[in-house]
Design a protein that fits this description.
By secondary structure, the chain is of the alpha/beta class. 45% of the residues lie in helices and 17% in strands. The protein is built from 36 helices and 31 strands. It has an eight-stranded mixed β-sheet with strand order 12-22-21-14-15-16-17-13. An eight-stranded parallel beta barrel has the order 24-25-26-27-28-29-30-31, surrounded by six helices. Strand 6 and strand 7 form a beta hairpin. The protein is elongated and about 105 Å long.
């Protein structure tokens, strides 16, 4: 729907907004307004809203009233500053910067020094008393404007700049004199004219208007869309545009620009963290084109600005009650704040900071749960490098984003994506990354750069994505043209060679370094306890946050486990029962032939013999499982495999029989087997004779399994144990199927109770995995004491595709085209599958108010899906043992977010 602009305001002065208006003003604009309200030194400016962007993107034109609003705000800014945009003698210059609701570092466009021209550059030089500064600012404008607004290949400007430095015999742009920069400006203007067919625009207002459009357009740029898909940011939010009066960090040694963090974004530790670059402007720090000095060194250069910055950082962290990421500029000893936002951080830092802020009384436990995510916890459970292993150290950089990443060296994003799609694990190695490298960064196991610090593009984006990153490894010489990296001592890493990077220490190794379990996994396994060193400090933070989650959550968390070993691990990880025991896994290996005999039995005698042989084996499995989970519920799903999983492959068997017949030594059993396999062969086994259908067609099959469960429970109970078995009938589509199986099961359970002298409570329920079952949940609930949603099969049957077949064939295209924001097998499809789950919950509980409801597909361990299951009122989620901690955390986060906590005994 088009955005209505009736009496709508599209432009806000920085004095008019606040931090709560991110939907309208974007994150950058809202926070600039908030800092202005706090009385901090923010250069005056105004923000064009996201609503204006939406109008522009829908119709290709700005709202008609927007231009007049911009003019009015620009005139007010000019009056306040005492100068006009681009005037010849003393020009007002502005920056035009993007600013979406959610931080998208480097993904959209920014243009600095708007208002400079052939005429005003001389006036700027006089006003500043620095000719070099003026021409440096002008060349930056043409370079940024040419690339981002006019679409000129940025490499053309970079090559010209590099050539100018080579000709002068210098290595950095600050060593170029005014005359060099003046010549470079002329060269840049020639590049623009040649590549675009027009001269660089000299009218200041035209520059600003074109830059505003470019920022709007960048919302739908390839890299912005790719980043939004990666970070699951909605595509319909639009971006705001911030017009800010320029302050200059490139005015000499008493000027500079920097990025600061109120805490270390890599570790979470308190202290002075950030980067500063003398005589530099805006993007130089995050671009990584020059290696920066540490923020602490600023104290020696400019103590007054340093002290003021420290005070402002404390003010902002207390105000936002979180780690803040700050951009600032010092102009000839005057400090200016250009941006603040809640900073991206590593997974370990997120947990440490959350508990630190609780201890400081800034946030409570419920808020602490909103500062961490299940995805971050999963990252902390990944393995790390074995410090005792022998490894060849190539060099060391800055530990920008932790993790242990191993892969083949690649030196450009195209190769990273290409090799990754072929199944190779790769490490992307660059001098520095830029936003165009995003697809390569996503495809890589980790990123290594020879330039830049903790605030460089590579570091910020990697932390946001949870990717391992080492930056600023200056001793490693990266040659992207020759596709190689040279280490001290002459060791050369060619493209394709395996390297290992440690984002926790900054070390870079040649070859593959062995890994060991994460200390967080060791903690969950009970092999590690909180102590004093750094790893134990992290464990202590995780321990505390998990305690917050367990106190808050309503959803219980079970595990999917088929044997005692997995069940015990799940229990150590905090599982409160088994939500899915797949009995078909108990019939693989040596037992497969026994099931094959059962399926192919021609007579009642053959079938009973097969069942009698299977019964004690099944019972022994359940005895072990009930002992491992004593006192906790164990939901046992009766046999549910597609039939073909227990039969010989029809092609292989046909070939074997044909060859035997050709040799005239055909085996009678093989001939009989082939005949039976042909009879039972299915074109689509996933929708064939399986689940409850198999139990109804093969007499005694489900009765044998129920008997094994009942006898195991009775044996455990007579041994003073507390077995809590639940029997689940799979693939039910109609209540009549369930009623038939239930009647038989109750008869068997009664027989076992009589024989063992033990009363048994064995609830009978079903798995809701077919659309018809969800749609008739009110009827099915009459015969079921619990539902467990099998969301894997429900997703397949709702969408009409097989996961195994389609993920490799067209899912990539669907994700790239935006048809899927994320795979429906990874995160539940709320509109389709989720709608069926919601309606089945309501209908089932309307029939049976005490109906117990759970989910046992892998969606039960997906963070976003857990929030949905909390919302619709399930009692528990069940997932693989390794994902149990993630589900526990997300269940707590869901309760904290909705203000509804507390345990539920169901």
């Amino acid at each position: 729907m088009p955005v209505s602009e009736d009496r709508q305001k599209f432009v806000y002065d920085f004095t008019e907004g606040n931090k709560d208006l991110k939907d309208l003003l974007g994150g950058k604009g809202a926070n600039l307004a908030e800092m202005t309200n706090l009385g901090l030194p923010v250069p005056p400016g105004f923000t064009i809203t996201t609503e204006a962007c939406k109008v522009y993107l829908e119709g290709g034109e700005e709202p008609p009233s927007m231009r007049d609003e911009v003019t009015a705000h620009l005139e007010a800014l000019e009056e306040r500053m005492g100068k006009k945009l681009g005037q010849a003698d003393d020009p007002l210059l502005v920056s035009v910067r993007s600013g979406a609701k959610f931080s998208m570092p480097g993904m959209m466009d920014t243009v600095l020094n708007i208002g400079l021209s052939d005429e005003s550059v001389a006036g700027l030089a006089v006003q500043a008393g620095d000719e070099r500064f003026a021409w440096d600012s002008y060349r930056r404008l043409i370079q940024m404007f040419g690339k981002t607004v006019l679409g000129v290949d940025g490499e053309l400007f970079e090559e010209a700049l590099e050539e100018a430095k080579r000709a002068k015999g210098v290595t950095t742009d600050v060593d170029l004199a005014a005359a060099d920069l003046k010549a470079l400006v002329a060269q840049f203007k020639d590049i623009v004219a040649k590549e675009t067919g027009r001269d660089f625009p000299q009218a200041p207002r035209e520059q600003m208007d074109l830059a505003i459009r470019a920022v709007f357009d960048s919302w739908n740029g390839d890299r912005a869309k790719l980043y939004r898909r990666q970070e699951r940011i909605p595509g319909d939010l639009g971006t705001a545009v911030n017009i800010c009066s320029m302050v200059f960090g490139n005015l000499g040694p008493d000027s500079g620009t920097g990025v600061a963090f109120t805490r270390d974004p890599a570790s979470g530790h308190q202290g002075v963290y950030g980067d500063y670059l003398q005589n530099a402007q805006g993007e130089d720090v995050v671009a990584g084109i020059r290696n920066t000095m540490q923020l602490a060194e600023l104290e020696q250069l400019d103590k007054a600005s340093y002290d003021q910055l420290m005070q402002i950082m404390e003010t902002l962290e207390t105000h936002y009650k979180d780690l803040c990421d700050i951009e600032f500029t010092i102009e000839r000893g005057k400090l200016w704040m250009l941006q603040t936002r809640v900073g991206k951080r590593t997974a370990g830092a997120a947990f440490r900071i959350a508990t630190q802020l609780v201890d400081q009384g800034l946030i409570d436990e419920a808020e602490a749960l909103q500062r961490v995510t299940g995805a971050q916890l999963a990252q902390l459970m990944f393995p790390r490098f074995d410090e005792k292993a022998k490894a060849e150290l190539l060099g060391r950089g800055i530990a920008a984003s932790p993790g242990a990443a191993v892969g083949r060296a690649v030196f450009d994003s195209y190769t990273a994506v290409k090799w990754s799609r072929s199944g190779e694990k790769v490490i992307l190695i660059r001098r520095e990354t830029n936003p165009d490298d995003l697809d390569g960064m996503i495809a890589s196991e980790g990123i290594l750069t020879s330039r830049g610090g903790k605030t460089s593009h590579a570091a910020v984006v990697a932390r946001g994505m949870g990717k391992t990153c080492v930056c600023g490894a200056e001793e490693l010489e990266v040659d992207t043209k020759q596709r190689r990296m040279t280490a001290p001592g002459g060791v050369v890493v060619q493209e394709g060679d395996v390297v290992s990077i440690d984002g926790s220490s900054g070390k870079v190794y040649l070859g593959e370094v062995p890994v060991v379990p994460s200390p967080v996994v060791e903690y969950f396994e009970g092999r590690m306890h909180a102590g004093a060193d750094d790893a134990d400090e992290l464990v202590q933070a995780v321990h505390r946050v998990m305690a917050y989650a367990d106190r808050m959550r309503r959803l219980r968390v079970r595990a999917n486990a088929d044997n005692a070993e997995d069940a015990l691990r799940a229990r150590r990880f905090g599982a409160q029962g088994i939500g899915l025991c797949r009995t078909e896994h108990m019939f693989l290996g040596e037992r497969r032939e026994m099931v094959e005999r059962l399926i192919l039995a021609d007579t009642d005698t053959e079938r009973e013999e097969a069942l009698s042989a299977l019964l004690p084996l099944q019972k022994a499995d359940f005895v072990e499982l009930f002992e491992a989970m004593d006192g906790l519920p164990v939901t046992v799903r009766l046999l549910d495999p597609p039939l073909h999983e227990f039969l010989p492959d029809i092609t292989e068997l046909s070939v074997r029989v044909a060859l035997a017949e050709a040799r005239e030594d055909a085996n009678e059993n093989d001939l009989r087997l082939l005949q039976a396999v042909h009879k039972l062969h299915e074109q689509n086994p996933m929708l064939g004779l399986r689940g409850v259908r198999l139990g109804l067609v093969i007499p005694g099959l489900f009765a044998m399994q129920v008997r094994a469960i009942a006898e195991a429970a009775a044996e455990r109970k007579n041994a003073k144990g507390d077995p809590r078995a639940e029997i689940m009938i799979p693939l039910v589509g109609t209540v009549q199927e369930l009623e038939i199986v239930r009647e038989e099961a109750e008869r068997v359970i009664a027989e076992v109770e009589a024989a063992s002298g033990t009363g048994l409570k064995l609830p009978l329920g079903t798995m809701i995995e077919l659309p018809r079952a969800a749609l008739t949940a009110d009827q099915i609930a009459e015969a079921a004491e619990f539902f467990s949603f099998g969301t894997n099969d429900l997703t397949q049957t709702v969408w009409g595709f097989s996961r195994d077949d389609v993920e490799a064939s067209f899912f990539t295209a669907y994700l790239e085209k935006g048809i899927f924001g994320v795979s429906p097998f990874e995160t539940i499809d709320k509109d389709g599958v989720g709608s069926l789950v919601r309606s089945a919950v309501e209908a089932g509980r309307a029939t049976r108010p005490d109906l117990k409801l759970g989910v046992c597909g892998e969606h039960g361990g997906d963070p976003e899906s857990v929030h949905f299951f909390h919302e619709v009122g399930l009692d528990y989620v069940s997932c693989s043992p390794f994902r149990v901690p993630v589900a526990r955390l997300e269940a707590g986060r869901a309760a904290a977010l909705n203000g509804k906590g507390g345990s539920d005994s169901r």
